[in-house]
Amino acid sequence: MTITVSASGLSLHYGRTRALDEVGLRLSPGVTGLLGPNGAGKTTLLRVLATAVPADRGAFTVLGHDPGTVRGRQEVRRRLGYLPQTPGFHPDFTAFAFVDYVAVLKELTDRRARHREVRRVLEEVGLGDVRGRRIKKLSGGMRQRVALAAALVGDPGFLVLDEPTVGLDPEQRMRFRELIAGAGEGRTVLLSTHQTEDVAMLCRRVLVMAAGSVRFDGTPAELTARAAGRVWRSDRRDAGAKAGWRTGTGEFRQVGDPPEGAELVEPTLEDGYLLVLDGAVDAEVAA
Amino acid sequence: MNTVVVEESPVPSAAAKGTGGPRGVAALARFEARRLLTSAPVVFSFAVYILWTVWRTRSSWDGFPALQDADRATQGGPLLVGLGVLLAADFAALRDRRRGTQEWFGTLVLPAGRRTAAHLLALLPVVLLTAVCVAAQFTWEALKPGAVGHGSPAELLVGPLTVLLLGAAGVLLARLAASVWAAPLLGVLYLFFLVLGTGPSGDTGGTAWLYPVVSTSGNSPFPSDLLGRPAAWHALYLAGVALCLAFLAVLVAARGRGVSARAGLAVALAMALTGGVAQSRGDSAELLAARERASAAPEKEQRCVTRDGSTYCAFDEWVPRADDWAGVVGRVRSLAGDPARDRPLLVRQRIEARYGLDSDSAIPASTRRHQVTVGTAWGGNRVPEFSAAVAGVLVAGSEAAAAELCDGRMVTVMWLAVGWEDDPMGTLRRVRLDDSVEGAAVVLAPTDPLSMTAGQTDVVRRLLEKDRDGVAAKARAHWDELTSPGVTTARAAELLGVPGPEKADSCEE
């Protein structure tokens, strides 16, 4: 497996708050999901990997380039597509002008080739027909797609997406999944999300973060497997349940330590995620 | 801490295919230039500038511009354009900060210093457009049939350089103050400065030249070689200051890094200092001596030409205007009687340059017989003023004598002065200081003014209402008596065939 992004010992403090604590990871082409509760350090990790902020300690490389040097940082940025959690927009720009502006800042200097590339990515995200429309006239979902197009322009080798589907309706989320899946073909995508379904459907690998460190690093199936034998259903809420809720059938679906003779059910990735966060299963983290 | 060595991506990105550097800056500059040129402040300020320039240039200098003044007239409009560019450049440079894209776009390839350089380069098309407008305005003036003199390329550069300077100030402001209110606040102060007209003039001392545009308040053009404006040094100073601001902006954005930017700042500072010091040295002794000569003994500096027996002596740049002056002299003489009708006159151009460009010092009336003074301005009211001077000399013999007239001869003078005009009553109104055709008034002339009493005004007005040829015939027939010292206004009216004043004029009593 080709390792395209590698980090070790990444640490970052905001005052006394430890946002990242000795984070290490290895990414390879394809979509890698990054799960974690609010405040886990997901966005901080993405910002560090996107060279938006420097880490206090540790090092990482992207596609063979070390952003610790000025030249290396430039090389990383040449190969990077970054979609932040709350991307700002220039409302008076058209969708085309906005992506073109980003393309210029990515140093795509040949005007004709750049415009061709901008049109390509706008077509790719399904905005070819509205590329001349001002951003302030676009819906939230369309704006998010403009931001994704901006991240994709220049065909970056490493794509960092910070909760790109937040605030989107189900149809838009499905459309986005399609886009991200396409983007993950042949390039490395790190996708931060709260949507475990996104990870289950898109990702070859998943990282789970909590309190600034990586608690799990494996495949979605492995994360799901962490909950094998730990999910059951019964008529009442059991004492050993870490989490449980009444389903539409009137039964309780529960995750945790099942009682003797409990009726076990198939776990989901979300069950595994809950248990990893809870510390009920052993964390498995890349060195 | 260890770094894992990894393999290169199997798919090299398009962005990594060897672009960037100066070409990246140029690409962003082109992008920003298009946006700057179509931004609301720039479009609005250019629209106002062009409309104002067209409206003003249509009738400026009454169609008789001295190009050494017309070049300076191109400097005011770009101040407004500069304000628009300052705002637009500041907003553009602050765009990412204002819209919350700063961190996001901070991860893109082009570094902050180069982005700032691109914003500065984006000013060049606006500066070039301003230069085109300045050139068009000046060319328009130069193509007017009555244009004389020579413009200065350095004076013409001031407008575009002012736009460059203010644009660079806008970019620097954005790098120093994150607030979007900084530039508008500066703009309000700037407008306040412009509207109040508190700009400096060239004669307020060397420090006046620290401002971008240094105006002059005098109304009479000077010969080019007597201007003494350090226009070239000022252009160098402005270019130096603009480049200082530009390189400072780049250095602030790049946090002081960049050898070429630091070197550029040093060169720009040297330019600004050289220009600033050189422009502040004041008038040289040679210039003051030349102004003295031109004021006190212009005949030594002038060239003379002859038209219809009269001699016209002027500073070199105004000699082509001799035909216009000769036309007026000929028309006035055509209404006069013998021997004035054929008397050769000496028309001498005179200026008062000893007190500088901002001075509006009066030129004393000449005591020499048959010599008429003409100024350096022409067109509009300067024509009947010159006509009054010619008429005064034809009737009284000299300008000094004409200025002292207080008898009926004044009727003849004024009828000669305005009688040949297509709209003699309107011309009479304009040439009088009070803009009326009733009562006593001062009549403007190139040197000392003439005076009309209320009675003389009444008689002249009645004469202008009558047939010109009929009055001219009577004037010729009674020329000797009409031009005799002591002739009363009533007698002059009687001789010319109109009712006289009801009572004697005050100065005849």
From TrEMBL, chain A:
Domain called ABC transporter: residue spans: 5-236
Highest taxon above the source species: Bacteria
GO MF term (any one): ATP hydrolysis activity
InterPro entries: AAA+_ATPase (IPR003593), ABC_transporter-like_ATP-bd (IPR003439), ABC_transporter-like_CS (IPR017871), P-loop_NTPase (IPR027417)
Keywords in alphabetical order: ATP-binding, Nucleotide-binding, Transport
Pfam family membership, one: ABC_tran
ATP-binding listed as a keyword: yes
The keyword Ion transport appears for this protein: no
SMART domains, sorted: AAA
Family statement drawn from the similarity comment of this UniProt entry: Belongs to the ABC transporter superfamily.
Protein name: ABC transporter ATP-binding protein
Native source organism of the sequence: Streptomyces griseoviridis
UniProtKB/TrEMBL annotation, chain B:
Chain ranges passing through the membrane: 36-55, 75-95, 116-138, 158-178, 185-211, 231-252, 259-278
Provenance organism: Streptomyces griseoviridis
Region (Disordered): 1-21
Alphabetically ordered keywords of this record: Membrane, Transmembrane, Transmembrane helix
Protein name: ABC transporter permease
Domain of life: Bacteria
Phylogenetic placement of the source organism: Bacteria, Bacillati, Actinomycetota, Actinomycetes, Kitasatosporales
